[in-house]
Amino acid sequence: MNTKEALQLLIFYLGSFSLHPQFLKELQNLLKKELKGKESRFFKLLVTQLKNIQDFGVMVHTVDSNEKIQGLDGHFYSIHFSQSQFNIRFLIHISDDNVASFLSAFYERGGKKATDYSQYTSVLLSRLKDMEGNYNE
Asked: Residues of 80-103 as b/e, b for ≥16 C-beta within 10 angstroms?
């Protein structure tokens, strides 16, 4: 699967969700680098996780190694895409009415504090504020 095909599939799968522009750029970079040649495995997990987000909403942290991010308002989650060949995290916000906003995507390297999602707190808050500002305009 080439990058263009992968991006078309992403648009299809993510079309019903709210996406920050930087999230899309980060995901595109992941597809070009860490996920190159592994797209089909990643998309299989993506479909499962998107269904989990739709079905479980704010309880998504109870399935598939997903986590509620501590220290924020209780609505931020780390969605985990892990196999032997990759370890991707999506950081999202789910509102009380189960609207999911995708804020950041990155490759998590085991044991590396620099790639731990706790480093993203200010980024998440800023990106959510950006998105909320666009909704209110």
From this structure: bbeeeebbbbbbbbbeeeeebbbb
Cα–Cα distance for residue pair 125/72, rounded to 1 Å:
9
pLDDT tens by residue, 2-37: 667 766 777 777 777 899 999 999 998 998 999 999
- Could you give the angle at which helices 3-14 and 21-32 cross, rounded to 10 degrees? 140
The conformation of residue 58, written as its DSSP 8-state character, comes to G
pLDDT digits (tens, 9 = 90+) for 29-43: 998 999 999 988 998
Q: Would you call 7 exposed, middle or buried from its count of C-beta atoms within 10 A (0-12, 13-18, 19+)?
A: middle
* pTM reported for the whole predicted model: 0.86
